[in-house]
Amino acid sequence: MYLSRFLSIHALWVTVSSVMQPYPLVWGHYDLCKTQIYTEEGKVWDYMACQPESTDMTKYLKVKLDPPDITCGDPPETFCAMGNPYMCNNECDASTPELAHPPELMFDFEGRHPSTFWQSATWKEYPKPLQVNITLSWSKTIELTDNIVITFESGRPDQMILEKSLDYGRTWQPYQYYATDCLDAFHMDPKSVKDLSQHTVLEIICTEEYSTGYTTNSKIIHFEIKDRFAFFAGPRLRNMASLYGQLDTTKKLRDFFTVTDLRIRLLRPAVGEIFVDELHLARYFYAISDIKVRGRCKCNLHATVCVYDNSKLTCECEHNTTGPDCGKCKKNYQGRPWSPGSYLPIPKGTANTCIPSISSIGNCECFGHSNRCSYIDLLNTVICVSCKHNTRGQHCELCRLGYFRNASAQLDDENVCIECYCNPLGSIHDRCNGSGFCECKTGTTGPKCDECLPGNSWHYGCQPNVCDNELLHCQNGGTCHNNVRCLCPAAYTGILCEKLRCEEAGSCGSDSGQGAPPQGSPALLLLTTLLGTASPLVF
Length: 539
Ligand SMILES: *[C@@H]1O[C@H](CO)[C@@H](O)[C@H](O)[C@H]1NC(C)=O
Ligand SMILES: *[C@@H]1O[C@H](CO)[C@@H](O)[C@H](O)[C@H]1NC(C)=O
Ligand SMILES: *[C@@H]1O[C@H](CO)[C@@H](O)[C@H](O)[C@H]1NC(C)=O
Ligand SMILES: *[C@@H]1O[C@H](CO)[C@@H](O)[C@H](O)[C@H]1NC(C)=O
Known about the structure:
12% of the residues lie in helices and 28% in strands. By secondary structure, it is of the alpha+beta class. It folds into four domains: 1-52 and 300-354, Laminin; 55-297, Galactose-binding domain-like (Jelly Rolls, Sandwich), CATH 2.60.120.260; 427-462, no CATH class; 474-531, Laminin, CATH 2.10.25. The relative contact order is 0.10. Residues 46-296 form the Laminin N-terminal domain. Residues 463-498 form the EGF-like domain.
């Protein structure tokens, strides 16, 4: 019941958040531990709080009685009928199934008539106290989710203590005292759970509510779990989110409802009168027909399934946790301290998934280039943040673009990455390969692309040669300037001075005669060229 309330709260939140935030839409599958969502990265699992369903816990317990031989019938004896001290010929005989009252009968199916019940021996040894301990053990932490209800077949005891253990029976603490007279029996003022509040909910009280009488109508004793929940969740437990919020933040409150064992200490049987009738001690005994304990395996909100195998309860842990209660991180998932999941959905709560250990992803996490790691939930991985020394990568194990690996430096050396220094004019981009070689444009060469291949000359980068003075590409007396253009005599034009200027203008032949003769003889031009005159010839 609590479970389904919680589910609906959670589902509602997810829907609301997908409207209010630019958050991935919930898609398809939904269960207690994870939801499939769409993100920019595609379909991924979103992990959240989870716990096994609340169930009848009496199916999984072991019961032990102290003293061990306290059950009636061995040897057989007679006892008085309930409510009629003068009808004392009822028989208890352990060797006759119909007349036996073994402890198992407290946990069998009830609802039949007459009901089956466990019964103790009678108070033959009065005034020596008749005391019985009934210990219920689960060998597993469980969380109570509903009232513990004990139904007596005899009168309800005059004095009783309900105790609990959180450490598999090593130590015990009282859970609640029950007496017809609390002050007399336990030196405590009588109280009822209704006298408590949010602030005093953990108080251990003595109650007189369940001890009066020896009548057939008052057979039941409660340990009130729901009334205590109601201090947080409201009278009809409508606001479970509020209870869960409290449980998330208050370990003491969580522990209050957690047990590994319960012990019912029967201290004095119902007498119903002021004095014990010593002539009819067969009137006095304990008999219990039913014990109800509802709860769930405690899996620290890291499992939805609890299996019963080899008479043992074990959580099927998620979120990379392990242990019977999912109480620790799996090997190689100890990247941060274990903590329980939370009841509340993100952003208030989180699954607290265990993350991979640093040691399982590299012996030196960021090689000294970053002192900060960050866990990426979606990828379930740890990355180094803000890698320094021109490094990059999940563990700062790579060089930034524009840098290359210094072969003579270790990975954790500050000088591990060397700038490429690619010539910006000669290279295609500023990146280089592992040995520092840049990618060159056409006609360009050298590790840094700052040299020209033959037939090319540097002019804002390598340009193919247009002319060259040795090969005399320039015609009609033109000279080659920096391999990129011919400087032509006045009458000539064109890239190689191959055209008459007048031709270009369309004015040849009319006035200044047939094409101006070359001024200066070819021999002179050749000489000038050979002498390597750098200054342009001006005509
Ligand atoms: C019952 O258990 C308590 C401790 O929880 C112990 O002190 C007491 O002696 C036990 N009584 C019997 C009858 O075993
Ligand atoms: C737990 O670890 C396994 C194995 O590395 C991984 O596949 C899985 O996604 C992890 N689970 C969670 C909830 O992070
Ligand atoms: C490469 O690393 C060595 C060792 O740290 C260092 O001495 C050297 O200067 C580095 N080379 C460059 C180009 O930074
Ligand atoms: C880098 O490129 C140069 C020239 O192409 C080549 O000789 C060298 O082997 C390359 N180095 C690596 C690590 O690829």
